[in-house]
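Table 4 source record.
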Amino acid sequence: MRVVLSNSSGVPLYQQIKDQIGLAVLSGELTEGTALPSVRALARDLRISIITTGRAYAELSADGFITTVPGKGAFVLPLDSALVREQLLRQVEDGLQAALDAAGRAGLGREDLIRMLDGLIEAGPEPAHEGAREAAGAQ
């Protein structure tokens, strides 16, 4: 797995690291038991502070993605289905918030947004389970 950082994205570096590793775990690119680079090695490779990589690893650990074993390193934990669902819900909320922000700037109201969402649901692939379509249609 390769971590790519951007100084111009407006997202803190530790958050970029956390997001990329978390996404790699959720997507299956990093599987249970996979060893991650040490905090020092990752900091050296990315040419950033050890404090920055340490914070990213601490947050990944707190979120249940990795565990750190003193003297051995950091390892990917098995995926917890509740954790996966929570992370996916967070991604949906982030996406919806970004859409609401853009809609506000464009002067769109609630009804406009509902029509757009309904159109996207109808045009897009089938949801993973029927409840998703029913919940969206109930609005």
